[in-house]
Amino acid sequence: MVIGIGVIGAGVMGRDHALTLADFIQGAALVAVSDVDVNRAEAVASATRVERIHADARTLIEDSAVDAVLIASPDATHEELVLACLAAGKPVLCEKPLAPTVEGCLRIIEAETALGKRLVQVGFMRRFDPGYVTMQSALKSGQVGAPLLMHCIHRNASAPPWFNSGMLISNSAVHEIDIARWLLDDEFTSVTVFKRRPLDSAALIDPQFIVMESRQGTLVDIEVFVNARYGYDVRAELVCENGTLTLAPRPPLLIRSSGQEISSFADDWRAHFSVAYRNQLRAWVGSIQTGIPAGASAWDGYAATTTAAACWEALQLGQTASVKFQDRPKLYN
Hints:
By secondary structure, the chain is of the alpha/beta class. The chain has two domains: 3-125 and 276-297, Rossmann fold; 127-268 and 303-332, Dihydrodipicolinate Reductase, domain 2, CATH 3.30.360. It contains ten helices and 15 strands. Helix 5 runs antiparallel to helix 10. The longest helix has 20 residues, at 165-184. It is globular and about 55 Å long. The two termini are 28 Å apart.
């Protein structure tokens, strides 16, 4: 069974997903591309040998050749497009965030719950990264005991000029929020966000240091630094009762010469997590074929957005903020 996939959004992420679907994912066929910039859509279609181009995303969703939809359009469009996919009864993989607001995520959950089946997967690709998968397996084995602390680092070489202080949380640290929830199988109850020093309101607050406490009492800290300059760098360590679990570094090349050891960093997240992105798409296509959900659910998207919103509140108020969740529908248990 070959799944016809339509990709909405032909920017950086949409293009990468389209190329991966076209060349690496068995059981899937990229059949359509949509972008409000038709020239950009045409460029991606040409690179992936796709003939069906839609200027309007809803037309792609309604296209009979499209069995499932991948959304990589701007964040503000996600809620509307995911709801349109649910209305059409089509599985959808939506890049994070599921929706920019907590209320938007809840509307998606309500619509999916009314259908009585899971059709939404959120693009938290780290759940498919071999390093994090191995870390989760080792934690579940019980060898190192229960988790006590988790340390996370998320650094980018530089942020685009349109990045704002809230996006350090909603676009960057949200990946650590989700992967910590996934590893610990727990939700967070409170968050505190520290900044390096007082800055005027117009300045980008970078770096930020986030501390979260889970329901089971595990403490998680996140350093998010989007203008670290030297490269893209992601690290994680779980400190447990009987040992630690550390995400192994992965330099693409290690050079030993003239008394020095030199390694390089990936340019950005796409290169660093290239295997995770491929594994995510394979799992998504497999879930459509088998009917068994994979990856982050709409509830996970809601939980991540809710926790991120609490972090933003804590940063603005300069004090600890509570994380409050709605009751989880049975569909996501």
